[in-house]
């Protein structure tokens, strides 16, 4: 890794050239580089924590002046118990993953001696823009090396000293390995981002990890694909036949486990039939966790009857905009879903319509005892993740068992939902023959065999 | 299919809504719609050919005025022998493909009763912009219905009467099926394209099928992903150990089988050791097919010695720009690749560097007798398709055995190389539980099982 003072164009060009060398390295060489990085970071613990302390010092001043939130301050601290070791363990975890390069998923004999093969290969050059947490740079560098992608990293200014110290250590460690130094470059100036987002001849994919604003900015400005999600407006619909015994647990977990997360609950849809039987218990449990409820008239009037005065002080009237808002906080919008007199199942469609119209196509859930209703929901909701009878918080690469997570994507192409290492890969075709030309085939000529071969 | 007079926003919104309904239809319902379209087009042959004749009449006038090339004129004619039947057969072919929707490729038991499933689903709304060939509209409508994607189609103005007639027939046929009419909409005004390219809330993917200019325009303007390729600057490198007996055949086929195709050869790289032994025969064969050779000094001076005066009249000096040019015609750039004195294998790297720098990352080939050299080429060339000892013309969805072709992509994400029906699909995650929350897991709590289940 180099801490680059090069121009954005020079840095991107160097990354592209390195990416081709990196793509040819065997897994053993990439793992050896990860080993070297791990050991070097382990040895340099004191130096890096000293640099981190400088970032923290400045951040504390900013926090005292009210320019920085205490949650960001907390995330900056690499010296917190277990954090540095977790960072080191993360390198080992990535090292231990199966090699994602060169996985063959198609082999076809087009004709005698003409064999086609499709296999996974790295994308090329990634531009990864992230915010303050200093350990993310190590995580991303590890993922890039493992997946044989070059990466240009741009981190938030709050961690600048930590980033510089870490990148110096990684750079020195890589020098003794086969991974070219320019494969991982740290860019520290904010004004490098705009030019990099235009260099589509060198940068193949942008991965912004941070605020909605950051993601939207990249989506608007980038001349290459952007992977990620801007919003996480997740909803759960409680159907008329929901199992009351699980409802409060699922809703409270979805909302309160980590309210600032993209997979936390923002809108609760409740079938009219369970306003009386289920919603009061759910509302009590949420209010006990400090949640403010923004309710439509129907749900509010039911709750007013069932809850104490102290509890109802946590209930407000919902405005239309609340159903389009990702609160990222202890606020929840609640809306009643009515059946038509003719058909109770219409309510499922109304809930689906609400979610497809107001949601962000990230993660949405249903609580129902019916497989048929769940299938209707599964098939018609246009979201990356659709959950039945469980918390939206399970939408996560680690929880899904992917070993590591590049991010969560709401894109409709390439990778969608929690993205593991395979989201950093693409495929290539290799065809080997013994002199065949295409003109030999077709009417009157040879016919293709298209015989599937074992992988 | 409706021939839409709606505003671009209304059309796109209607497509989005239809796409959700379409996504829930079983394969049988989509196949029944294809059947209906097939039968209706079969019945309406005379009406459609009459409309096509009007397009042809106008086109002939344009061609006579020099405003339209004769090759476009030829492509417009739906009445040519076998063409209409081929178009109908294309619908049946697509109908017969395996259902691309709902293919499960991952099942994991996260914990007791908490089961994750990943499965294929349609992307949503496709915007497909294409040029004159009238049968393409039928091909694309078939692919969209089969893959359960809604599609907005914009065809070239030269085929406007044919498109209108075809879309009227398809629209009427779909009315009797479960496929919503707004699933397939034909837009006829050129000025609808720019607004559509901005409607990323409704349109999920743009597929331009046509000239480099059209593709570049879409890449520049679209607010959503664009799949395709602008350039097809394909190269072949003849290494020092190439098998002479196959060389002329492969090179002539690559260049001459269809010079206007994106997978035809544009640059020939020749190792210095075979300038005398192989190049003259290759050059003679190319010149016999009417190819003009743009040569560097080294190759030109060898050819001057070996070819007749008549032949050498087809040889010109190459300018630097020729190695960056997609001629799409009977012109070929030739460049000599030299070994360094120390290491003959360095020439392979020089050829690879040339291809990675000057090529378009579409399809590139090598002629060599060595598996080791071929592997070096395979691993280091940054192209969607890498071919060894065969013609670049094999880069094609039909030839690859994909049954149908959406196009050829040089993108580094989603789909790369010839794209079959699977390029119109993305995946979704479905998680079913019985009341689990995420807070139950982690240190001190339950541990995930992450048990792989059979598909």
UniProtKB/TrEMBL annotation, chains A, B:
Sequence ranges assigned to domain Aldehyde dehydrogenase in this UniProt record: 6-307
InterPro entries linked: Ald_DH/histidinol_DH, Ald_DH_C, Ald_DH_N, Aldehyde_DH_dom, G-glutamylP_reductase_CS, Glu-5-SA_DH, GPR_dom
GO MF terms, alphabetically ordered: glutamate-5-semialdehyde dehydrogenase activity; NADP binding
Pathways involved: Amino-acid biosynthesis; L-proline biosynthesis; L-glutamate 5-semialdehyde from L-glutamate: step 2/2
Entry-linked CDD domains: ALDH_F18-19_ProA-GPR
EC numbers on record: 1.2.1.41
UniProt keyword annotation of ATP-binding present: no
Annotated catalysed reactions: L-glutamate 5-semialdehyde + phosphate + NADP(+) = L-glutamyl 5-phosphate + NADPH + H(+)
Enzyme class: oxidoreductase
Keywords from the UniProt entry: Amino-acid biosynthesis, NADP, Oxidoreductase, Proline biosynthesis
GO biological process, one term: amino acid biosynthetic process
Family that this chain belongs to: Belongs to the gamma-glutamyl phosphate reductase family.
Record-linked HAMAP family: ProA
Record function comment: Catalyzes the NADPH dependent reduction of L-gamma-glutamyl 5-phosphate into L-glutamate 5-semialdehyde and phosphate. The product spontaneously undergoes cyclization to form 1-pyrroline-5-carboxylate.
Stated name of the protein: glutamate-5-semialdehyde dehydrogenase
């Amino acid at each position: 890794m180099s801490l680059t003072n090069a121009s954005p164009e020079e840095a991107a060009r160097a990354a592209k050239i390195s990416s081709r060398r990196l793509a040819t390295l065997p897994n053993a060489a990439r793992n050896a580089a990860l080993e070297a990085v791990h050991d070097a970071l382990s040895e340099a613990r004191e130096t890096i924590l000293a640099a981190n302390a400088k970032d923290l010092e400045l951040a504390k001043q900013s926090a005292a002046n009210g320019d920085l939130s205490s949650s960001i301050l907390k995330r900056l601290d690499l010296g917190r118990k277990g954090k540095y070791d977790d960072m080191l363990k993360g390198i080992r975890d990535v090292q231990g993953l199966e090699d994602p390069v060169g996985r063959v998923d198609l082999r076809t004999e087009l004709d005698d001696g003409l064999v086609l093969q499709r296999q996974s290969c790295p994308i090329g050059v990634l531009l990864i823009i992230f915010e303050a947490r200093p350990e993310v740079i190590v995580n991303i560098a590890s993922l890039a090396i493992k997946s044989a992608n070059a990466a240009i990293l741009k981190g938030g200014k709050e961690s600048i000293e930590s980033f510089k110290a870490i990148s110096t250590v990684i750079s020195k460690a890589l020098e003794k390995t086969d991974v070219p130094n320019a494969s991982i470059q740290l860019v520290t100036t904010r004004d490098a981002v705009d030019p990099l987002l235009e260099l589509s001849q060198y940068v193949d994919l942008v991965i912004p990890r941070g605020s909605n604003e950051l993601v939207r900015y990249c989506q608007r400005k980038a001349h290459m694909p952007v992977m990620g999600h801007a919003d996480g407006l997740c909803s759960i619909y409680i159907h008329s036949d929901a199992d009351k015994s699980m409802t409060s647990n699922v809703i409270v977990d979805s909302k309160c486990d980590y309210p600032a997360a993209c997979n936390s609950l923002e809108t609760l849809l409740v079938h009219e039939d369970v306003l009386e039987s289920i919603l009061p218990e759910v509302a009590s449990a949420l209010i006990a966790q400090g949640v403010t409820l923004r309710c439509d008239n129907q749900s509010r009037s039911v709750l007013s009857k069932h809850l104490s005065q102290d509890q109802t002080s946590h209930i407000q009237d919902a405005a239309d905009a609340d159903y389009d808002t990702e609160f990222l906080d202890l606020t929840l919008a609640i809306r009643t879903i009515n059946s038509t007199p003719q058909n109770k199942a219409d309510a499922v469609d109304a809930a689906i319509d609400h979610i497809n119209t107001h949601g962000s196509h990230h993660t949405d859930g249903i609580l129902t005892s019916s497989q048929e209703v769940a299938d209707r929901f599964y098939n018609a909701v246009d979201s990356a993740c659709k959950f039945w009878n469980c918390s939206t918080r399970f939408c996560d690469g680690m929880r899904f068992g992917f070993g590591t997570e590049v991010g969560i994507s709401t894109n409709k192409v390439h990778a969608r939902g929690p993205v593991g290492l395979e989201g950093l890969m693409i495929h290539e075709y290799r065809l080997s023959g013994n002199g065949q030309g295409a003109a030999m085939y077709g009417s009157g000529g040879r016919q293709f065999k298209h015989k599937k071969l074992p992988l």
